[in-house]
Amino acid sequence: VGFLGTERSIIQAPMAGSQGSALAIAVCEAGGLGSLPCAMLTVDAMRAEIVAIRAATDRPFNVNFFCHRAPAVDPARDAAWRAALAPYYRELGLDPDAAPAAASRAAFDERTVAALEEVGPPPVLSFHFGLPSEALVARVKGWGSAILSSATTVDEARWLEARGVDAVIAQGAEAGGHRGVFLTDPMASVATQVGTLALVAQVTRAVRVPVIAAGGIADARGVAAMTALGAAAVQVGTAFLRCPEATTSAVHRAALASDAARTTALTNLFSGRPARGIVNRLMRELGPTSPLAPAFPLASGALAALRAAAEKAGRGDFSPLWAGQDTSGCRDVPAAEIVAALVR
Ligand SMILES: Cc1cc2nc3c(=O)[nH]c(=O)nc-3n(C[C@H](O)[C@H](O)[C@H](O)COP(=O)(O)O)c2cc1C
Fold it and tell me: What local confidence, expressed as pLDDT, does residue 6 receive?
């Protein structure tokens, strides 16, 4: 038996906005640990997705949450951000003064815990951006569920171990999507992010709990390298993005399949926190990082209309095209084939 009751010690990374239960189910059935990202789901949608997973597989699965603190709204920064975006609004024939969409990412809270108790606790919960309050962590532990969380530094790994996580996900700088940074200012850390090799090597020495390697793992050789460094399992995201079971948008799939996928950068423009994505027009013209972007997750609101209009025209100019530094494992094949390629 592999890690956390799976056949294969492969965790499909939760990818909010790019997948739901279908990908998680496919990976569970292929012997990996499928994950359901909940950061962009309402509590009702989360419940329905968990019911769907249980109906389709009796294998263990992971349910993933963000646990950031809601930021104070800063009207001046908000206005500056909207002013920076106004020329794009005009170019696309949109009204720059229309009320922006609400920010689209929610944090784990009392309501989430109550809904999970009602639907039946998942076997594994993973967190990004630290952990929820001690009281909420204690409730989750009381269910007997395993708890995982991402660390981007040795200090974060030690902090998580001290608070009782069952395993630490060592998220190297190569990883696609948001950096899990939580002990230091996420923007200040952009220049100092540690790569997966150096991070996994150090974290496996620093903590006693199992370490899951994440970031830039695209094939079985990457898995072997991480195993050699002492990782108990790997967490792979980008390689699953073009699978038919994922909900990745058409512009995102096209970018992943193009030469542009070789050039990624950390950017805060799409959410307010650093995340790795394929360099696109907005990143080239305003960033890739900018002090104008409101704090996480508020930056996304004013971008929503631009993103929708451009995507309708087949362009990903204003979309977050999250991807890790190695997109070579990312293919238009069923998720079971990606799992097989990782264990081969
Ligand atoms: C499209 C995308 C969305 C992501 N969303 C989440 C998320 O919702 N929660 C989370 O914990 N990690 C998220 N991540 C980060 C992954 O957990 C993981 O660290 C990363 O995918 C590993 O690197 P790789 O993409 O090179 O395999 C996301 C990554 C990608 C590519």
Answer: 86
